[in-house]
Design goal:
Blueprint lengths: L12 E6 L8 H9 L4 E6 L14 H6 L4 E4 L13 H10 L2 E4 L9 H10 L3 E3 L18 E7 L6 H14 L4 E4 L3 H7 L13 H8 L8 E4 L11 H11 L3 E6 L17 H12 L7 E7 L6 H15 L3 E2 L6 H11 L2
Parallel strand pairs: 1-2, 1-3, 3-4, 4-5, 6-8, 6-9, 7-8, 9-10, 10-11
Helix pairs in contact: 1-6, 3-4, 7-8
InterPro entries: DgcN-like, DgcN-like_C, DgcN-like_N, P-loop_NTPase
Pfam family, one: DUF1611
Protein name: DUF1611 domain-containing protein
Length: 342
């Protein structure tokens, strides 16, 4: 898997929340908190921010005293821009002794004040959302090894968390498995990967191919999904990832509360069944043996009893294992069993 070499982020991290008031726009910060907690010393936010990670609130200088080496912009806003209001706080971090790590589309070095300050102080500006050079055109040819891809009925509803949970569960069973990151937060967690939404469209399927190369027959690559194949704006990256990763198994991620497509409220969220049918139809182009291993539901808003009941009823309705990967338990064990079937 492509690694972040040379200019790799150095932890521990101070997580920057900017002026975020919507939890969903802080998914990078939450992802690092949940999956790399040992690397997170605290959070830093502007006065207008209402989102919190429930980590210690620290200034950059205080974070340095606690061992932080980098500030990570934990925001993933629409368009991936770095707000003007953030610049003084980012300069403060540089002056305190921190590098700055960003997964935004906007590049840190293109912001004059940040570039000059970093050069003057010898700090690094690290843009994670930078694909490798010389990505080949996809071949569509089948590769050795096993692959699992998480797909979604919409954006931002748990594909990364599901892939991480599945990879962890496989490893716990003694299965040789790797999580393959395709977005900025996953790359920060895993230490490598390819930011699929930053790859030129003609090369996106090729990027997915090199992300999960030939492997031993019993090795599993668990690939983080992106977007949704029926999202009016973001389906392109989803289809490229599907064709290039050639999954043997896919898991559909869904949030029952979501009725309208995120970022495009004119469209209804498709059904789980629609996504299964379409993923098989399109995915079979590069892997005729593709199959659905089950469904991952976000049940964070329910009690344990309610979550179990929902997963059980959906499993009966769909005739597939249905579980919340974060809750784990017997339902999740059954989903893993199904994914591993020959």
């Amino acid at each position: 898997m492509p690694k972040q070499k040379g200019n790799a982020p150095l932890g521990p991290y101070l997580l920057f929340l900017g002026d975020t008031v919507e939890r969903g726009y802080a998914k990078t910060a939450f992802g690092l908190r949940d999956w790399a907690p040992h690397q997170c010393v605290g959070e830093f936010a502007l006065p207008d921010a209402t989102v919190t990670l429930d980590l210690p609130r620290l200034t950059p200088a205080e974070a340095v005293d606690r061992g932080a080496r980098s500030l990570v912009i934990g925001v993933a806003n629409t368009g991936g821009f770095i707000a003007e209001a953030w610049i003084p706080a980012l300069v403060e971090a540089l002056e305190a002794g921190l590098d700055i790590v960003s997964g935004m589309h906007a590049k840190l070095g293109q912001i004059t004040e940040l570039r000059y300050t970093a050069e003057r102080l010898g700090r690094r500006l690290i843009d994670v959302r930078t694909p490798p050079v010389d990505i080949p055109i996809a071949t569509g040819l089948k590769r050795s090894g096993k692959r699992l891809l998480t797909v979604g009925t919409d954006c931002a509803l748990g594909k990364k968390y599901t892939a991480l949970a599945i990879a962890r569960a496989l490893s716990a069973r003694g299965v040789d498995a790797d999580f393959r990151a395709t977005g900025q937060t996953g790359i920060m967690i895993a230490g490598g990967g390819i930011p699929m939404d930053a790859v030129v469209a003609d090369f996106a399927a090729g990027a997915a191919e090199i992300l999960s190369p030939d492997a031993p027959a019993d090795h599993w690559d668990v690939i983080e999904g992106q977007g949704s194949i029926l999202h009016p704006a973001f389906s392109g990256v989803s289809l490229s990832l599907l064709h290039g990763s050639q999954p043997d198994v896919f898991v559909v991620c869904h949030d029952q509360r979501r009725t309208r497509v995120l970022g495009d409220e004119e469209f209804a969220v498709p059904t789980i069944e629609e996504i299964i049918r379409l993923t098989i139809a399109l995915g079979s182009r590069t892997n005729p043996r593709i199959r659905c291993g089950g469904v991952a539901l976000n049940t964070s808003y329910l009690s344990a009893e309610e979550a179990d009941a929902l997963c059980a009823s959906e499993s009966e309705r769909l005739c597939l294992p249905v579980a919340d990967p974060i809750r784990g338990g017997p339902a999740f064990d059954r989903l893993i069993d199904e994914c591993l079937k020959p």
